[in-house]
Amino acid sequence: MRRxxxxxxxxxxxxxxxxxxxQIQVGGLAFDIDLxxxxxxxxxxxxxxxxxxLHSYVPSGGAVLxxxxxxxxxxxxxxxxxxxxxxxxDSSEAVLDLAQRNAGYNGLSExxxxxxxNVFDQLRQLAQDGAQYxxxxxxxxSFTRNREAVAKALSGYKExxxxxxxxxxxxxxxxxxxxxxYVDRLHFETMLQQAAGDARRQLIVRERFNQAGHHPEVLxxxxxxxxxxxxxxxx
Length: 235
Hints:
The chain is of the alpha/beta class. Helix content is 29%, strand content 25%.
């Protein structure tokens, strides 16, 4: 918002400065964060309820793909819930180093692999390699921060969801999100239907997700209702 208003970007402590590197516990797992240097204070706290909800969709001994994995929150929860293998993909090698460290803290290194690269390209490569998954998680950054770019954003969301659908075995689960306020749930789910049609797959909605309760949606401030997600069975 400051950038949009032509204001300088600044970072300050409220009160005295303090060490910003911390370790937190989420869903029984330990995660290193940096309150100052990490994106959104180093952990996507608006997703914590959904990290826990993921457990019910993880097949014991299954293969899981976590795209846009950041520091591994969904990936590690999937491994802790019983997945045999988890592949996390993100464009940032720095956050993947942290994801790997987090996996080590929790004794999950042997089941979690992290790969740096453009997610769109990596999903295409996985398809070319014949990879198949039982669960795919897509938690991309916002593809638009204004109403004018919604159509382009939906095209991007459709592409990654289409590619993920092609990697899922019949009966697999797609857990997919958008964190853009300007992409409403109707547009998001219409896009999913179109992606499924192009992939010649059928989606059965199992659950819909919102942001965690400590990120409340205020009706008089519609921008606070920004996170939407779907868990869908894929046939």
